Amino acid sequence: MTTLSVPGPAELLEIARMLAREGAELARRRREEGVELAARKSSITDVVTAADREVEEHIRARLAELRPEDGFYGEEGDPSTSVDGLNWVVDPIDGTVNYLYGIPHSAVSVAVAEGDPATQPASMRVLAGVVVNLFTGEEWAACLGGGATHNGEALAVEAAPSLAESLVGTGYSYDAAERREQARVWAELSEYTRDVRRMGAAALDLTAVACGRLDVYYERGLKPWDLAAGSLIAREAGAVVKGLGEEREGAGMLLAGHPDVLAEFEPRLAAALG
Ligand code: IPD
Ligand code: CA
Ligand code: CA
């Protein structure tokens, strides 16, 4: 078997961009035709539509042709092993509940990383990532060391003057008991901020930090497919993306924002978490 060469981040970015656009177009078309609920996952509120599965299958099949030696790790199917050390990390529809309700805030998120996101998410080094809002076609993209863009325009995160003048976003778990605890923390934090948002798509929350639509975003319980592309885009735009303290971002916690604002926010979050 001939081994394919491993392309650099810029070349991987173009593959990610093509696949995210194709996925977004497919999901948009399916939404116009009518949403079909396919299953419930972790709880009654955690839904998957036929389009989630179809978009993931489409991206997976395209990668099998284009990059047969790379692994695949998507939300809806079983992971496949990488031969060359690269893994594609895909959320076929992030913001599925928005998609179901027709709230135009859902995205396809495609990233490619070194390391194994399935067994060692903390080892993941994302090389390229693209997030496309499937309703609007808005696109955020980044490759490692190459900066981030929004519809082709370069991004640079600016600091809000203070936490009191910061718009802070978060997300909630599908588990009702966890959500209750998240809401308690959220209520405590809201007192220190300009205002708060829960928009319903983690990948778009991270791109919102990258393009100045949120000053801070934090969430507990994210999966690699929720955060892979968006965290690279936010970082390449100049944001800090991290976990609590010295921790790396992951299921335990993800915080994103300009370093000056995060320095004020993180102690408040830690205190609220108790
Ligand atoms: C969810 C969304 C939501 C976040 C949840 C995610 P899904 O992803 O990103 O905003 O709060 O943690 O699971 O289920 O819509 O792909
Ligand atoms: Ca998701
Ligand atoms: Ca999803």
UniProtKB/TrEMBL annotation:
CDD domains this protein is in? Answer: IMPase
InterPro entries in alphabetical order = IMPase, Inositol_monoP_metal-BS, Inositol_monophosphatase-like, Inositol_monophosphatase_CS
Q: Which Pfam families does the record match to this protein?
A: Inositol_P (PF00459)
Swiss-Prot/TrEMBL keywords: Hydrolase, Magnesium, Metal-binding
Tell me the Gene3D superfamilies matching this sequence.
3.40.190.80, Fructose-1,6-Bisphosphatase, subunit A, domain 1 (3.30.540.10)
**Which cofactors, if any, are listed as required?**
Mg(2+)
Q: Give yes or no: UniProt keyword Cell cycle.
A: no
What PROSITE patterns does the entry give? IMP_1 (PS00629), IMP_2 (PS00630)
Enzyme Commission code: 3.1.3.25
Bilayer-spanning residue ranges: none
Q: Does the keyword Zinc-finger apply?
A: no
- Write out the catalysed reaction: a myo-inositol phosphate + H2O = myo-inositol + phosphate
Can you tell me which family this protein belongs to?
A: Belongs to the inositol monophosphatase superfamily.
Q: Identify this protein by name.
A: Inositol-1-monophosphatase
